[in-house]
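During the second half of the funding period, the structural biology subgroup turned its attention to how the target accommodates small molecules. The most pressing case was 3-acetylpyridine adenine dinucleotide, which had performed well in the primary screen but for which no bound structure existed. We therefore specified the complex as follows and requested a full 3D prediction, including the ligand pose.
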Amino acid sequence: MPHTRIAIVGAGFAGLGAAIRLRQEGIDDFVVFEKNGDVGGTWWDNSYPGCRCDVPSHLYSFSFALNPEWSETYSPQPEIWAYLRHTAERFGVLPHIRLNTQVSDASWDAAAQQWRLETPDGLHTADVLIGGNGALSEPATPDLPGLDRFQGPAFHSARWDSSQELAGKRVAVIGTGASAIQIVPNIQPDVAQLHVFQRTPPWVPPHSGRPITKAEHIVYRRVPGAQRFVRNFVYWTREMLAYGMTKNPRALKLVRRVATRHMQSQVKDPALRKKITPQYTPGCKRLLPSNDYYPALTKENVEVVTDGIAEIKERSIVTVDGTEREIDVLVMATGFHVTDNPMMEHIRGTDGRSLLEQWRTSGAEAYLGTTVPNFPNLFVLAGPNTGIGHTSLVFMIEAQIDYVLDALRTMRTRQAATVEVRREPFEAYNVDVQARMQKTVWNTGGCASWYLDDQGRNTTLWPDYTWKFRRATRRFDPENYEFGSPVAPVAEPRERVEVGS
Ligand code: N01
């Protein structure tokens, strides 16, 4: 059976970042399993019109691979994907990656002290498992009566069907989240009619994105430290938002004022304004900066529908007020399975129970978002309570990767075969996270969001400044872990996988 010291699941920012940093540590005995046909994770999955990051690129990139060539301050998806592909190549991790290889199950084998991974190529074992499969990887399609009866093209925003010509068509977009507000202005000029089905309006402040000038490119290429200076500046200005979101939601009044003025300047029709004015504190759901979303809603071929959807028919959508709208194409910009990510069901720990089963009553919990009792040698990247609503997730992922590398070093120096977080620090940590969460805008802002699980518990976001997470993960803390000694040598020699160059 093929065996590596480490197996990584996913080749997005998290999995690639881990792979690169392992190589930099001189560790080559690892493999990355990626379900898609190429690297990039969410930046491979999402290719809908107008897809771009809403965090500035200087910050939304690896600290060890700044890119002086970003064309805009907020990069479009093709550029972010190309950056990830190029970075994977540049740091020599491509030979480690098995594309089109979905890990369908991962179980801890207590006797062998290994993870057993089921892949389409058969079983693979690894001493250590790093989960980089991402929170926004499983599209959620709405549970609408009659959806399967629809006769025209219907697809999720993260599975955009570019073979479908939208020009001249009647299109429905369900949802008004981060994906929808980028799709709507980008398809509006081409389609005959656009029905935007809104359940909850977003707060939309002005967008500050702009092209990066030639002069800036020259400076970034030639002046060491210039881009890092801008990155730090962006980081600290973004961190100021964390004060309002996590400490004092009243401070978000300014955001409310700016976003309200933005809407008033772009939307003149009072009836439309009324429909799209949110009734919750800004930041409770993700803030969605845009300069072209509101103008698109005011166009003659666009209708914002706020009546709930009662039924989908072969060629139409019927709302609860009985109105039937004929459509040709249905776009579901309806988000992802985050707190109910199906992968949780397929990772099994010491007692054979899955993460889903372990988390059923408590909700998703990990120590520093990374390690879980009963799941030895498992490190989850972008795990529970590591998401953020105001800055770059790459910052959090890199902090976790440093922590994992230090854990691996500690295992080596202690000659430990296993490492598992102790229950007391794990519980104390999660009590503290939830206590801090009570003050945040996500819990007090009066909205429902994908940040909360079905018990209303926020298991997704980090409830503080991100530098505090960085500080907490800077060094591995062996006192909070149990270490296991190696078992007796395995009788049969194991087949080693040749990976890496
Ligand atoms: O998904 P969402 P998303 N009937 O869950 C609605 C990242 N991201 O793909 O608000 C009718 O935010 C739902 O309504 P409601 C970013 O982290 C980043 O847009 O629940 N409507 C909502 O309007 C983001 O937060 C970028 O009432 C239904 C929408 O669908 C995350 O991905 C770009 C419905 C879903 O919004 C997810 O964003 C894109 C139903 N049955 C994504 N079910 C950038 O960096 C759901 N909705 C720019």
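Two results from this model are relevant to the next phase. Residues 226-247 form the longest helix (22 residues). The mean pLDDT is 95.
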